[in-house]
Hints:
Helix content is 34%, strand content 24%. The chain is an alpha/beta fold.
Amino acid sequence: MTLARFRALTRRYPSLRIAVVGDFCLDRYLEIDPAKRELSLETGLPVRNVVNVRAQPGGAGTVLNNLVALGIGKVLAIGLCGEDAEGYELRKAISGSRGVSLRHFFATAERRTFTYTKPLVLRPGQAPRELNRLDLKNWTMTPAAVGRKLARAVRAVAAKVDAMIVLDQTDVPGTGVITSEVLKTIRALAETRSGLLILGDSRRGLRDFPPMAFKLNAMELAALVESKRRLSLAQMRIVAGALAQRNRQPVFVTLAGRGILGASPEGEVLRLPALPLRGKIDIVGAGDAVTANLAAALAAGATLREALELANAAASIVIHKLGTTGTASVKEIKELLTPRQGAAEPQPR
């Protein structure tokens, strides 16, 4: 990608309006100082002393953070939190982000705030070491009235945005924001507003999602076609290409160290290799950075290849940020991507 083309695309970002519909989580980091040792008087067990607590949006909130880092003009959050302390922290963290609207983000006593609590052991000169995570999730179905309220919010913003990202972060279908009622509404939008980019991403796979732009990883793609074996690159090209033509929307498959693959409805299939590692890595948040950058790039008018280049660079930046769920800014992407002229040449099939 030339510098001129990079600038042409990213200069459109401040004029874009993108909705993020999904499971907004709270990432709470507990920073532990192992030098502060003591034993509990009550149990005799070692005590881990927390010296700092950090909180930031996770899940769909990570996608939102990446859109904010890119300078998207307006980011509309559609989701919920519980009426609990974690919900207060989450709303506070999101509301501090530039250009974010919380008009369609609400608190409800019928749900807990989805929370990942991450204890981190910090030692001088070493990368943070994460201990066993403590999660707060909802294991019951989202009440129908809550689902209807979310669906109304999706309909309300559809005519006001350039793109919509749909993110399902739950382990059990129907327990989060992406309920059957919300999917029904999104299906109707996909059928009636063919010009609206809707990009879907789900940690359980996209089998139940209506035709839209898909972003998956290699395992999710294999599960989608009910393959019990890992797909080869050649097989993934065929499956992604067929899926893109069926949905009449692009399909993107992240391949970890092998890069990212994209397929267009017109039959174009490309794979870009991952950028070289530049030190220790932490892959948390890389997929969400890819999702945000694909949506922003396509909404700005990028080609399939250009969207892949931008998303690939963003993922490379994020994985090198340790001890946090990082983001990639336009400046960081520019510094990494534009000196690499020819990095996006066609790869061997």
